[in-house]
Design goal:
By secondary structure, the protein is an alpha+beta fold. 14% of the residues lie in helices and 29% in strands. The protein contains 4 helices and 14 strands. The strands form 3 sheets. It has a 6-stranded antiparallel beta sheet. A 5-stranded mixed beta sheet has the order 1-11-10-13-5, with no helix packed on it. The protein has a 3-stranded antiparallel beta sheet with strand order 6-8-7, with no helix packed on it. A hairpin with a 2-residue loop joins strand 7 and strand 8. The chain is globular, with a radius of gyration of 17 Å. The protein starts with a strand and ends in a 14-residue tail after the last strand. InterPro entries: Phytyl_CoA_dOase-like. It holds the Pfam family PhyH. This is Ectoine dioxygenase.
């Protein structure tokens, strides 16, 4: 498996061609420290929580991210936040993530249609796999609340693998593998169909972040987002 140090950029063209972008200094260390206080209830639970967007502070943060001058050009014009997940990886909460695409999103209720699939329920929410036409318009924003180094199980992406659903993970073995470390306040933007993975943390610090999923306001086939901020 190859490893490369591509020049990370936040330009829309880079995101479109590579499937990811890195935006530093979106929030200050003080702002991130305040957010860590807000996430304290999640820190006593399992390694993640998918329900953060129901909280007022998280909704305000979603609005702030959508209008950030370096992030807004990466989103579709009518983008809304549809989910926010808190992730914490540390020596105590450690896990390996194999190569995959993120293909599910929370919706208000199930709709029976031949183009809709992948239905499931997680933490009381209904999830499904949006059609590829919708997936192409979606974007994940991973806001790092503290530094993420090589020893903290950082995100690994495989550039240019974001053009199709069910891109074979085996095909990533001969592609570039880009490890995305991040300073406090950095946002990593990623197309959900980009193949990605992460290793277990090997250090003693924590990798805490908020993972927002952005998508178009309107959905086909009578679907509605569970939340749209």
């Amino acid at each position: 498996m190859l490893s490369t140090e591509l020049q990370h950029t936040s330009s829309p063209d880079f995101l479109h061609t590579q499937g990811y972008a890195v935006i530093p200094n979106v929030l200050s260390e003080a702002q991130c420290a305040q957010l860590l206080q807000h996430t304290a209830p999640f820190q006593t639970r399992s390694r993640s929580s998918r329900t953060a967007l129901s909280l007022p502070w998280c909704q305000e943060l979603a609005r702030q991210l959508k209008t950030h001058p370096a992030i807004k050009p990466l989103l579709v014009p009518d983008a809304v936040a549809v989910q926010c997940t808190y992730f914490e990886k540390s020596a105590d909460r450690n896990w390996l993530v194999s190569i995959h695409q993120d293909l599910s999103a929370p919706v208000a209720q199930r709709v029976d249609h031949p183009q809709l699939q992948g239905w499931s329920e997680k933490e009381g929410q209904v999830f499904m796999q949006p059609p590829e036409s919708i997936m192409r318009q979606m974007l994940a924003l991973r806001l790092h609340l503290e530094p993420c180094t090589e020893t903290d199980g950082p995100l690994k992406v495989y550039p240019r693998t974001h053009h199709h659903i069910d891109y074979a993970p085996d095909s990533a073995q001969d592609r570039e593998e880009v490890t995305l470390t991040a300073a406090t306040g950095t946002v990593i933007a990623m197309k959900p169909m980009t193949l990605h993975a992460s290793s277990k943390a090997s250090g003693h610090s924590k990798r805490r972040l908020l993972h927002f999923l952005m998508g178009p306001a309107d959905l086909p086939y009578g679907l509605q987002w569970e939340m749209a901020v």
